[in-house]
């Protein structure tokens, strides 16, 4: 049976693993990986809009790994539309890179669950094999962090190097040309980054479990000493 300190540290590590899985699941399922502003270039050129009038042709866009949305202003008021990455839009993007992002994040979730099971095991039992103890926990968390980092880096590469926002914004736009004024990473992306840092925190907590706390010393009651004078009385 592990000591109280080890049970506490491995329980904290288990909570962190659950948090990492939750962060990745929310990141995968939400639509706020990227947000930005889009200008309807065609509408602005038709009316020869000057700088103050351009605000009437500026809309917004947001999207995640599976879906998103945009609102465009092309002189006909604000028109909102839904964006679905699968099954057609993915063909116009760098589909291999986009699928790698999803695959890497799913693999990171898998290894985070493996790490969770090992944390629970170590909180209840003392493993006989080193791979089931601290070394195994270090290994699974480093692998989970590695694949999570690969996922967010691949998405960053797709966004910056392959004009991801511009391709998403202009999908199925036959009459108008939309220009991306600015785009930025939003909170769904940073949840993925937070999951990576969580695994390093798990490694730190696991390392703390190896510290041995000093045991409180219990003083034994002193036995009364009997001298020769006491025996005379």
Automatic annotation (TrEMBL):
The keyword Membrane applies. Its main location: membrane. It comes from the Eukaryota. One of its GO terms (cellular component) is membrane. Belongs to the clarin family. The lineage of its organism: Eukaryota, Metazoa, Chordata, Craniata, Vertebrata. It is a multi-pass membrane protein. It comes from Seriola lalandi dorsalis. The keyword Transmembrane applies. It is found in: Membrane. Keywords: Membrane, Transmembrane, Transmembrane helix. This is Clarin 2. The chain crosses the membrane at residues 97-121, 137-158, 187-209. One of its GO terms (biological process) is sensory perception of sound.
